[in-house]
Amino acid sequence: MSAGDLFRSAFGSGAFSEFSAPGRVNLIGEHTDYNNGLVLPFAIDARTHVALSRNDLGEVRVVSAQRPEQIRSLRVGEIQPSEGDVDWTDYVYGVFWALTQSGRTLGGVDLAVDSNVPVGAGLSSSAALECAVGLALSTVHGYDVPLPEIARLAQRAENVYVGMPCGLMDQMASATCQAGSVLFFDVGADTCENIPFDTAASGLSVLVIDTKAHHELADGEYAKRRASCEQAAAQLGLKSLRDIEFDGLADALSRLDDDVLIRRVRHIVTENERVRTVVGYLRQGAVSSIGPDLTASHVSLRDDFEVSAEELDIAVDAALSSGALGARMTGGGFGGSVIALVPESVAAAVTDAVLAAFAARSLTTPVVRTVAPATGARAD
Ligand code: ADP
Ligand code: MG
């Protein structure tokens, strides 16, 4: 069912507008965004669609094709952050709240969601939902909110209303990415640059392996990693770990005495450097040269930042041993997805090797997709 069909069946035959925003994969630059560092994501061709219209009920009524229950509704005045379990509607109401907090006046709406971004697979279905809703709500209320601001409001919704202390990468990618490009986002400098990423021209593909593993500790461990990074920056007298130059890494590490903090810092500083290296290769069109940096990123996330999972390591190892040029977990970790850069000629063999490795361990069968850089949030 499309978002428009769902809108009609839930709210009747009136007119509606449609908007969408994509999921993303991160090519490299993991856990660096909330350290004011460098990230290199691209939007994928899986999107969350929203169909909506204003109503005169003073209520925000929402429904999702991915959630079986009936219409959910809150009065406009009741849309406020609260304690309690996270509910999918928090992602929608959170964006409504963030827009009103930014000084815009919003009224009642009917809103239907449909998505082919896999939920909880590390491909950022949450940012896709937030950004589609942000563009939809602002536009139907007559506000022309720039896409980078939609991203910031979406992040605020997730941080404050949902209660997840994420950085800005996912939302910036979903809101602003361009087809055929990766987004080089320097969070500290607040600059974005689209860099052409044409794998096909080099005879390569990017595979995304959704391992189907979702480890419960993910959100709590994410918050702990963030806290450790902030603690290390404070001990070093820095605003953020971004302020450590690669050349100054050994000196910075020598001024920390906690082994865990040392490893967390080493990941962030080396990861920023790997992003710079990969950007350098992509500027030269040397896509096939980036593989070792992708793999080094995985090793650093696994050993120093400790956010990998058995399933992610198995997928990376199987991909590398069957011909991938590089492979790494993508997204926050503790499950989710792996990306592998592969010559097109071995894509099928890599897929088979990954499936065989999971089958041999009686793990849930992963889903392997080919992805290409797609466009960000838009009116449809
Ligand atoms: P990810 O962003 O990696 O997919 P998250 O845990 O950050 O995983 O976000 C997933 C949550 O976002 C879901 O549990 C749900 O609450 C919400 N969500 C995302 N897409 C949809 C959708 N199409 N319909 C309803 N809720 C959704
Ligand atoms: Mg998410």
In this entry the ligands are: adenosine-5'-diphosphate, magnesium ion
Which residues form runs of ≥5 with pLDDT under 50?
none
Strand order of the largest sheet: 5-4-6-3-1-13
Structural class: alpha+beta
Order of helices and strands: HEEEEEHEHHHEEEHHHHHEEHEE
N→C terminal distance: 16 Å
**What's the helix count?**
11
User: What does the overall shape look like?
Assistant: globular
What proportion of the residues form beta strands (DSSP E)?
15-25%
CA radius of gyration is 21 Å
Number of domains as seen in the coordinates: 2
CATH class category label of the largest domain: Alpha Beta
Keywords:
380 residues; alpha+beta; Ribosomal Protein S5, domain 2; Alpha-Beta Plaits; 2 domains; six-stranded mixed sheet; four-stranded antiparallel sheet; 11 helices; binds adenosine-5'-diphosphate; binds magnesium ion
Explain what this protein looks like in three dimensions:
Strand 4 and strand 5 (72-75) form a beta hairpin. This protein has helices spanning 3-11, 88-101, 125-140, 147-162, 169-176, 218-235, 249-254, 259-283, 291-303, 310-321, 347-360, and strands spanning 17-26, 38-39, 41-54, 59-64, 72-75, 109-115, 181-186, 191-196, 204-214, 326-330, 335-343, 367-371, 378-379. The chain is built from eleven helices and 13 strands. It folds into two domains: 3-194, Ribosomal Protein S5, domain 2 (2-Layer Sandwich), CATH 3.30.230.10; 198-371, GHMP kinase, C-terminal domain (Alpha-Beta Plaits), CATH 3.30.70.890. The mean pLDDT is 96. The protein is 40% helix and 23% strand. The strands form three sheets. Strands 5-4-6-3-1-13 form a six-stranded mixed beta sheet, sandwiched between helices. Strands 10-11-9-12 form a four-stranded antiparallel beta sheet. A three-stranded antiparallel beta sheet has the order 2-7-8, with helices on both faces. The protein starts with a helix and ends with a strand. With 380 residues, it is of the alpha+beta class. Bound molecules: adenosine-5'-diphosphate (ADP) and magnesium ion. Magnesium ion is lined by residues 124, 126-127, 170.
